[in-house]
Amino acid sequence: MxxxxxxxxxxxxxxxxxxxxxxxxxxxxxxxxxRTIVGRELRTVARTRTVFLLxxxxxxxxxxxxxxxxxxxxxxxxxxxxxxxxLELLVPIVAVAFGYRAILDDERRGELDVLATYPVSPREIVxxxxxxxxxxxxxxxxxPLAVVAAAIxxxxxxxxxxxxxxxxxDSPILFGRFVVLxxxxxxxxxxxxxxxxxxxxxxxxxxxxxxxxLVVLLVGLDLALVxxxxxxxxxxxxxxxxxxxxxxxxxxxxxxxxxxVVAGGTGPQVASPIAxxxxxxxxxxxxxxxxxxxxxx
Length: 297
Description:
By secondary structure, this protein is mostly helical. It has helices at residues 2-26, 30-47, 49-68, 71-74, 76-99, 102-108, 111-115, 122-155, 172-199, 203-230, 239-242, 247-264, 273-296.
């Protein structure tokens, strides 16, 4: 009898353990679900041919501009100046391509409905999608810039033996700042694209709204600033802070202020770094908040 009782208890414990394990498998915790979402987004990015082709095109353009402009021999600072304007156009296009259908595709496949059955909030879903896409976007942008930096280090006619930040020094530190700011700009635009993806109901709507967003980011806000300055709505003293309203102007101002002006040591202030960083943060965090609302509605 004692043996039967022990066997029954053991069987009961095993059954309970299997049941608990099955429930744990069926209802994973939020952290595990978040990691799963990030991994899924990385696999999606890796399998998407358009994203792969955009990455190759960006690499070819960046390397080509550097080659034609003689940046490999000229140094880090001239290369930064050569690449700034093209990347102002290319980075938003690539970032939007990475994110404008991220949430929409999940909704159309019914994956958001599945995720709703797990203990994960809309905020965690958005952050997981954003994190996965952000990693892929960062790799796509960082690789060509890293290749450029390596080429300059190997072939450039650098006469400064010490990497310093004093006036006139051409340093990889300056190019590193440029890379970091470019990645920050890309992540902000990606957040805007994720927000667009969360509020549209179809692929055509996502594409149309993405085009509108690109026009506003690349042209519209800068034109509004010019109009405000011309009409006296923005004073000369307020211009540096007003530039932070546009993510593109904020990015451009940060690059010029922290690389070109620092290296030259002279010249007028072209932006307010603090205001520009705040402007980028507001755009990024605000867009993610819109995405959370879009997923949860």
